Amino acid sequence: MTISLKSRTEDHVKIYWDKTQDEEIQKLFPFSIKSLEESLKLYKETLEDGASSYGKVIYCDEKYIGDIWCYCIDETDEKMTMLSIVIFEKDLWGKGIATEATKIFIQDIFNKYKVDKIGAFTYSSNNRSRGLLQKSGFSEIETFVEDGIESVYYELGITQSK
Length: 162
Prior knowledge:
Layout: E1 3-7, H1 10-19, H2 23-28, H3 36-46, E2 54-60, E3 63-74, E4 80-87, H4 97-112, E5 117-123, H5 127-135, E6 139-146, E7 149-157
Helix pairs in contact: 1-3
């Protein structure tokens, strides 16, 4: 399998929105965006100078299978960003694709932005996501409950990524 990260387009945003409306995917990831229109608006904001988020699309053997992005980019005060990844092609889950994509994207983030660390949240019950973060070098920082769901916060420092 060949994994590559490519630039996002409006068409990717539309496909992503459609694919992530799946009930099983919705249970695994804390989606905050409630409409395709909102998704397209946020995508357009990522194209502006000084945008606080940045993302790529994940391809496996030239097939679009998911997105990876960072948000809340802060190069001034905390010098950190947050990471999110979703593989929407469920038949490709558990094959190491997300781990490989994450490792590539982490290096991209540290090269592109003046940040010292990357944070990530996942539901405590999402064992694949937790495994992905651990395999990618993230350390578990804390467990907490939000909206009645137990979640875990992970962090990766620039020195841990090398």
